[in-house]
Amino acid sequence: MVDKILSTSSFKSALLRSRDNYKRSERMIPILSLCLLLLSLQCTPKVEWIRSLPVDAARDHQITLGFYSRPAEKKSAFGSKQFQLYWKEEIHLQSNSKFTKIWIEWKVYEDHSEFHHKVGLGNFEKSGDWVLLQTNIITESKCISFEKTKTIPHGKDWSKLFPCSTPSSPNNRSIDHRLLYYYDGKSLYPLQYESGYTEANFGIAWESDLPYTKSSLFEIAKLKYGKKEFQPHVYNHVKLD
Question: Under a CB-based contact definition with an 8 Å cutoff, are residues 102 and 119 in contact?
């Protein structure tokens, strides 16, 4: 009988200790969450500077105008024969400090094809090695084709080559999109990954240490992203014949 009482008492004591531990754990959860949030904020690089030029730096116009094209190789998912992806991206710098940014995606499936086209219009400014592109208007159009032919895009204007089955009017909208590029005299490097005005949280600025500084970390990141096999983060100047 005594053993039974002692056993029951021990069980109650263990249960009380378990409840106390659980309550302490509940109190610790908000504290741990706050610590993790602060840690993530400290680890996240400060990249706000990629939305503007250096404030006190003089502006200049020493840049080669014309077309800058991003290298784009044909890719398919794991070598799939049922799906092919083609795309094209280029920036056209004009003499009046205007620019046109073109993004085109052409997907070929087994039973249909899809076409997606975006054109951004805006102004650019330059200061030393830094070029800021500010987009004000985006024109977007989409189209589907149910033709069975495996069309491969060739030529300059893909929008005129795609056989639209359901043509639609382009969608125009205003936007305030700013992104800084590094200019090395022949190519433009976006400081954060962006494609078709869709950005991702990685790129040259994310692996650099100081804003507007060509440090050793900046040069390593520029080399890394400028030579990526799949959609490199660079637009090379195109010499027209």
Answer: yes
